Amino acid sequence: MKLIKPTVNHLITMKGWFSNEQELTNWSGPNFRFPLNLYSFTEDLNMSSLNSFVLISNKSEFLAFGQFYQRFK
After folding, report:
1. 61 is a domain residue
2. CA angle 4, 9, 11 (to 5 degrees)
3. How many CA atoms lie within 13 A of 47 on its CB side?
4. pTM of the prediction?
5. Which long-range contacts (C-beta less than 8 Å, at least 24 apart) are formed by 58-62?
6. Which of 22, 24, 46, 65 could form a disulfide with 50 if both were Cys (CB 3.0 to 4.6 A apart)?
7. Is 15 contained in some domain?
8. Alpha-carbon distance 42 to 48, whole Å?
9. What pLDDT digit, counting tens, does each position of 49-73 carry?
């Protein structure tokens, strides 16, 4: 397994995880827009300012998505 930077294909896959607003809110919190489109989803994930990674298997299967940041300086 390894961590890599998310690609557009990963984001499209993730976007498909949510079929309604409640599912998205349960995963992300209250600040994501619904219905989703790739542009708003990428913006709401703060991809440009947060360290974002995808965990892939040795067979390149998309297993997980995660982000981190320093919350308290």
Report:
1. yes
2. 80
3. 16
4. 0.87
5. 58/1, 62/10, 62/13
6. 46
7. yes
8. 9
9. 999 999 999 999 999 999 998 888 7
